């Protein structure tokens, strides 16, 4: 189906969107207080999700602090803070430009957006057209001068438009936009411009963010709310783009329409003075408050503090990570998880002393602060560790083991979290061969939900890379 037929066709969402737009217009003008809270919500959601999808590590709460209070909480990387502020500036730019009828969308403005969001030139890991890992300098605000390629989940190398053909293709895209901007469905127009831009990938970096900014410029220009592609919905988004790659353009149009329905329904709620908080928003606010208010006080190590940290890390970080790692079990001959207390391997069961306690069950002698069958009120804890050992990679020509460990070292006023490839084997926990994640935090600074997602993604990608390297 060509782009013209898609844009003129009715989809299953067409009538619903038409009704929602009509309802929103009926409720206009919106009261100032309702407009303010809607703008705040959409600004936060767009900046957070568009950047998080590309690897920015700021949590939702940290993003809110940066955008609305100009504060930085926790150990947020300076580069990620700068990136978030720059992206917010670009959002403001497209909103202002959409209001100016004298300023048309141009290639120069698109280049300026790329320069704004990337801030300054830098070096980045890259893949050559032949699939070789390399590094390249990222030039900002300029079309690419070297090829940009990406390794697909299938392992294949996908090459975007070549540097030589990029200026011509971008010129043709802008001409296509000017020909269609005044008489075609604006949501379809925005969706297909976004897709065509991504196919070209004209810049060294920042193409996804710029494409989503321009998509929303087109929507703003047509008095529509912005599209928010949630980072948690990334798989569906990428699937829609992949379907479009093989000719199913309606897939990306339908996906963007579904996100517009969310934005319109949210806007209507705001216009009616109703709550626009979503499920989880209260938790996000509490997380932000915790970051802002509780990380300034000092807490020292006690059995209770250590035990609470252990329980939190076990449930919120290790168990989800172990569950993800277990998905690789089929690639290995054997997989086991080991636990270490103060560097010594812990058996699954402990022998109960003879005598009066010989008849007692484990539950009857369970202590209040029990970590790996050790009562830390009596046995001081200095470190704990889980190690997932994946033994003998089936596809390798030689014996290859991958051991992923998560270690917590308890210090007087802080703890050190390390996750990476572990050398631990047998009864003793040795040092890490490769530390992939390392965080030195005070005791009242815990790992947040978004950080857990990033950690699991980092570790999973490392295991995948190791399996590929040893084929």
From TrEMBL:
Keyword flag Zinc-finger: no
UniProt-annotated site: Important for autoinhibition of adenylyltransferase activity, residues: 54
Record-annotated Fido domain positions: 105-258
Keywords recorded for this protein, A-Z: ATP-binding, Nucleotide-binding
Domain of life from the UniProt record: Bacteria
GO molecular function list: ATP binding
Active site, UniProt feature: 201
Residues of the signal peptide: none
UniProt name for this protein: Fic family protein
Organism of this sequence: Reichenbachiella faecimaris
């Amino acid at each position: 189906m060509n782009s013209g037929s898609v844009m003129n066709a009715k989809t299953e969402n067409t009538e619903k969107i038409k009704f929602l737009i009509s309802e929103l217009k009926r409720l206009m003008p919106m009261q100032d207080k309702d407009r303010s809270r809607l703008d705040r919500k959409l600004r936060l959601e767009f900046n957070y999700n568009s950047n998080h999808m590309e690897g920015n590590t700021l949590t939702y709460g940290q993003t809110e602090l940066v955008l609305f209070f100009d504060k930085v909480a926790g150990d947020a990387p300076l580069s990620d803070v700068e990136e978030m502020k720059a992206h917010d500036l670009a959002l403001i730019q497209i909103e202002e430009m959409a209001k100016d009828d004298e300023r048309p969308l141009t290639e120069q403005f698109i280049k300026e957006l790329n320069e704004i969001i990337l801030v300054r030139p830098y070096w980045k890991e890259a893949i050559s057209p032949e699939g070789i890992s390399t590094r390249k300098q990222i030039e900002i605000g300029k079309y690419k001068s070297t090829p940009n390629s990406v390794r697909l989940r299938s392992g294949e190398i996908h090459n975007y438009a070549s540097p030589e053909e990029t200026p011509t293709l971008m010129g043709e895209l802008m001409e296509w936009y000017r020909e269609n901007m005044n008489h075609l469905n604006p949501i379809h127009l925005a969706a297909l411009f976004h897709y065509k831009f991504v196919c070209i990938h004209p810049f060294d970096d920042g193409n996804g963010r710029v494409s989503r900014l321009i998509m929303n410029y087109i929507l703003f220009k047509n008095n529509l709310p912005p599209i928010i592609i949630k980072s948690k919905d990334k798989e569906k988004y990428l699937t829609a783009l992949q379907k479009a790659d093989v000719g199913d353009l309606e897939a990306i149009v339908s996906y963007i329409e579904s996100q517009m329905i969310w934005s319109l329904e949210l806007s209507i709620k705001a216009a009616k003075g109703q709550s626009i908080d979503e499920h989880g928003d209260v938790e996000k606010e509490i997380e932000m408050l915790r970051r802002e208010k509780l990380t300034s006080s000092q807490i020292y190590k006690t059995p209770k503090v250590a035990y609470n940290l252990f329980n939190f890390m076990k449930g919120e970080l290790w168990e989800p990570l172990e569950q993800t790692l277990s998905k690789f079990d089929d690639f290995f001959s054997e997989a086991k998880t080991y636990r270490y207390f103060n560097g010594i391997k812990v058996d699954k069961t402990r022998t109960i002393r003879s005598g009066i306690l010989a008849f007692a069950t484990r539950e009857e002698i369970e202590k209040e602060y029990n970590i790996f069958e050790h009562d830390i009120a009596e046995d001081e804890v200095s470190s704990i560790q889980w190690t997932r050992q994946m033994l003998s990679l089936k596809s390798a020509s030689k014996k290859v083991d991958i051991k992923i460990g998560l270690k917590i070292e308890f210090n007087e006023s802080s703890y050190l979290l390390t996750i990476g490839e572990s050398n631990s084997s047998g009864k003793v926990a040795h040092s890490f061969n490769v530390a992939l994640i390392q965080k030195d935090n005070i005791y009242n600074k815990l790992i947040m939900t978004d950080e857990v997602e990033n950690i699991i993604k980092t570790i999973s990608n490392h295991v995948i890379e190791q399996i590929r390297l040893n084929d």
